[in-house]
Amino acid sequence: MRRLKRKYMNDFPILNRKINGKDLIYLDSAATSQKPVQVIDAVTDYYKNHNANVHRGVHTLGDESTELYEAARKRVASFIGAVTPSEIVFTNNATDSLNLVAQGWGLINLKKGDVVLTTVAEHNSNVLPWEYICERTGSGVEYMELTDEGLLDMDVFKSKLTDKVKVVVLSHASNVLGTILPVKQISELAKEKGALVVIDGSQAVPHIQVNVQSLGCDFYAFSGHKMLGPMGIGVLWGRRELLSNMIPIRFGGGMVLDVDKKTYELAEVPECFEGGTPDVAGAVGLAAAIDYLDDYGMENVRKHEIELTSYAIEKLRTVKGLWILGPHNPDVRTGLISFVIDGIHSHDVASILDSEGIAVRSGMHCAMNLHKNMQISSSTRASFYIYNTLEDIDKLLAGIEKAVGLLK
Amino acid sequence: MDDNLYREELMEVYKSTKNRGTLVSPSVEVLEKNPLCGDQIKLQFEISEDGIITDAKFDGSACAVSVISSAYLMDNLVGKSIEHAKKLTKEDLMGLIGINLTTSRVKCATLALEGLKNAIGKYENGKSNTENKNKNR
């Protein structure tokens, strides 16, 4: 297993960089992952050899580009267990996908008095699109609290799941707490009440095996760049019948079949949601990232991250005044750890770690509601991926101890 | 200019209580926040009739850059006129601290400066309101 990991680590050119004279230890994959040479090469190859606009001209390159783009769609569909590739809408990122659901579905289906049920732990990208739609439709967002450990109490969920709830909006895995929510159970309960389930899978798809059909949700959104793929490509999966009844939010070229001055005829799903020239190279790069993850094996990704997370929790617990946010059981969380050190601001921790070549995230991680709810001003987040090692965590611990020594 | 923000003399400023705390009867106070990173700093000034800052203190929870720049700023302001304080620029503040800050940390340093400008505005507003009230009597 060790040798296998080394083999994969050599695939990431950026890991050879020195930061402030030290070897880069990249612990910010929850913000964006690094890219293996296979993905970088796939993007380069596309631009060098196949670049042309898709679904338009009849020339050879146009065909090649279209075939690559549609092959990427198939690749994504099989990776997350979609029924057909046409259930995959390519977007710019998860934020874009979530806005598409909120506006494309929410605007025509929500009405006065309806409730959008979510938690305080959501990323801004999963809450603000709904707050905006609720304001316009007279519906309202209701926030569920989490337990002290950062879990969703299913009894709380059941009690909040009233007949007024039309849609349940949740992150599959929290970007701050790491908590993995029981989406399958949530979907079953929501279905009984006739509510839709929209899942932000940005922090889940890169780290755990996801099958949208067995999860039972209705929409599932994620970004390519957090799962070894390029920036600028995102995915919205939706049930075919729901996508077919949604309105497009980006009008223009490529999303219509016919235009006759005052009237137009929309293209089929998913093209009708992909107005304008898409990020074909991004889709090609995402397909290469999925190939890479499949080769590594998602069960191995999970195994590796549980090993790193267990080790990190054990080590970080030894630092006086440091407390870890979210559940401590690695089986119910992903490979990221957010923590707070009494009396030390997260920016200072991150700056001192940076001087040691260690990249972590500091601040509120776009989850203001959660931080305010926990009454903390900010936190530091170390997030792991397939290229991280136990030695990285030893260095993280040494860096944190240095920060505590300097600032306390 | 030095790149090392966490060198010993700056850490002494960070931990120092010299300009930290609260004034008994401040002429003006502001609470300055940076919601993105959660910094929150209260600035208080005691200003004499002839517009001289006679005392200045800050307090709150913030990162080292915010704290150090607040400490230097407060220290520098005592004994100076409001007119002098109004003219202070970001560059002046950077000169006082004497460190090269990365792009992402510059806004931490300028939090106190923004607070100072807001405090002066508030003070002068309050003064002109009082003067107007007096005139109207």
Automatic annotation (TrEMBL), chain B:
Stored Gene3D superfamilies: 3.90.1010.10
Output the InterPro entries linked to this UniProt entry.
NIF_FeS_clus_asmbl_NifU_N (IPR002871)
Against Pfam families, the record matches this protein to: NifU_N
What GO molecular function annotation could you give as one example from this UniProt entry? iron-sulfur cluster binding
Set out the biological process GO terms recorded for this chain's protein: iron-sulfur cluster assembly
Segments forming domain NIF system FeS cluster assembly NifU N-terminal? 6-126
PANTHER family, alphabetized: IRON-SULFUR CLUSTER ASSEMBLY ENZYME NIFU HOMOLOG (PTHR10093)
Q: What is this protein called?
A: SUF system FeS assembly protein, NifU family
